[in-house]
Amino acid sequence: MPNQIVQWTEQEWYKSATSKKDNLDLYSSHIKQAEEILFQDIPEEIIAVEFVNENKSMLNFVKDRRKFGFFNYSGNLTKPKIGDLLKVRFNGDGQDGFYKILTAKKADSNTASDAIKDFKGTIKVISPQNFGFIEGIFIEPKIIEESKLTDGQAVKGRAILSFNKKKNEWGWEAIEIK
Question: Is the domain covering 116-177 a CATH 2.40.50.140 domain?
């Protein structure tokens, strides 16, 4: 061995050092950069979060009327919210609506998306159910109550593309009142 290495191995810092049983900490600290390199040839898609189940780390998403479903976001996102725009790399096609993802990160809220739109108009509240519509955009009772909206009021907000299972058709649903 070269003399310099022998000198190092005889020093106190070397003798008192304890080695780790594996390099898991090192690998974990660089996993995001490694995934970006590995998956860079797979295009990112812009999707919108439609529903979040925090207990199961699952979220429903919609990209457009042709691509929508759900996936497990554990290890990729922290606290996603309805209406968040995400840049996602999918691992192939979905199976019965379930997709596997390679990467997912939040996108800028101003990013163009076919699944989110801003709206403004006059609300029509339907009694006694207390839901409403603004130019065809459904406003659920919870939003009407929380925002204290009244029939005929001028309203601005954001809506998400949503599939209505009862009517078997696509429509828009308010997710935020501004």
Answer: yes
